[in-house]
Amino acid sequence: MTTQTNFLGIPVNGDVTRGETRVEQKPIEELQPILQAVLNDPTIVEFGWQQYTPYFNDGEPCTFRVNSTWVRTTADADVEDEYELEMWSHRSLGKTTGGEWVDDPDTGLRKKIGAQYEGPDEARYQQCKALEAAIEGGAFENVLLDAFGDHAAVTVRRDGIEVEFYEHD
Asked: How much is the pTM?
């Protein structure tokens, strides 16, 4: 058997099975301006997401993840189901159609290029999409896990953040 690598200067022999490639983590200071830009928008009432480690993942490793970012605007006051407020096709912010999914060489994440915006305010939509990308992109997972814990539904408002236990399958 040949030496594949070393650990603290000690040779490691054998087959090393690589785990999931994780996104490089960023400090909380890089999340603050993205979050603040959305909070400063007077039409945004609140936003949130869910974060958890799945209990079962069809045989794949169960790893912590953040998903289902949603945004409530002043036009969404009557919406009770946060699913209607998720960013893939937002009720009042709009959506993008068409385009092609490609791997971003800088982040390793998939992104859509060539999509057409449909909605009332593209700048506001893109600001919320930037928040979604930061929250769900994986680069702040450690920060979010440390701040809000596992199995959490997080709601952010100007006057505070609410964390509730998140029930999931």
From this structure: 0.82
